[in-house]
Amino acid sequence: MRRGSIVLLIVLGLAGCSTPRDQAAVAGDLTPIIRSSFRARGQAGLDRLEQTGMQRLCSSPQADALPADLKQRLQREALESVRYPDDGRWLGDWQRGEQIAQSGVGLQYSDKPEAPHGGNCYACHQLSGSEIAFGTIGPSLYRYRERNEGGVDSMRRTWERIWNAHAFNACSLMPRFGDAGILTPDQIRDLMALLLDPQSPVNR
Predict the structure, then answer these.
(1) What does the pLDDT look like over 103-118, one tens digit per residue?
(2) What is the pLDDT of residues 67-112, one digit of tens each?
(3) Distance from C-alpha of 157 to C-alpha of 148, rounded to nearest angstrom
(4) CA 177 to CA 56: how far, in whole Å?
(5) C-alpha distances in angstroms, 47 versus 6, 29, 31, 35, 39?
(6) 143 — alpha (psi -120 to 50), left (phi > 0) or beta?
(7) Which of 65, 86, 118 is the last residue of a domain?
(8) What domain range includes position 14?
């Protein structure tokens, strides 16, 4: 274990024994310690330690108590960042979408930069009725079509959630798949088909 990692564990341990005010002070001092513990390797550069304004707010000690008007503003800004399909085509191929949802490949130092990224959706959501292991951080997506049949409006909302979930929850844990460039628009179309095509395992 590197020295920086040991120091980080000690600081986090001290934070667990401190008052909320002390925790805020400790959290503010963690940045240089965290930076000293990371090394650029392959495509995983130190630029990943740079946070957006929203990320800084949502990872602050005050994140659970953000004023309602601030949350609304953050959600509005996130919604304004969404790019919709230029050609009006919302759905792709659900079979490709299933592969994307089950793949955790991409953006790690050991991955090939030119290889397609996965969505790793199963790590947080149930996708089909036959799965025996899936994450529960996010809601189940099984039978998604039944709960979200609403024509273009339903497809638009689904696209927005995949593109930038902060549009609906200011401090969502869901990755900003489109906004952060994790998935391409075509990949998002395929995920849309996985969620909304009646033939996909999500809806059978």
Answers:
(1) 999 999 999 999 999 9
(2) 999 999 999 999 999 999 999 899 999 999 999 999 999 999 999 9
(3) 9
(4) 19
(5) 23, 19, 13, 10, 11
(6) left
(7) 65
(8) 3-65
